[in-house]
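Researcher: Go.
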Amino acid sequence: MDIKAKIAELEAKIKGDPKLLENFGKDPVKTVEGIIGVDLPDDQIKGVVDGLKAKLAAGDVLNGVSGIADKLKGLF
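Model: Structure:
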């Protein structure tokens, strides 16, 4: 699996869906597993989740969604 390509794909999906973004803030591992349709051990999916957090924070996506940025600050 090309991790960078998967992160880019997941980022696009999460950016395009405020509900997914909210769910990602609450439980990023379960949200990613739900999108890809595979239940992986948390340690295996951690790299993807960390990459997504970094990309979403860098793109300032989180600040554009009311209330979600405050909920996610502790995650970063």
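Model: The chain has one domain: 3-75.
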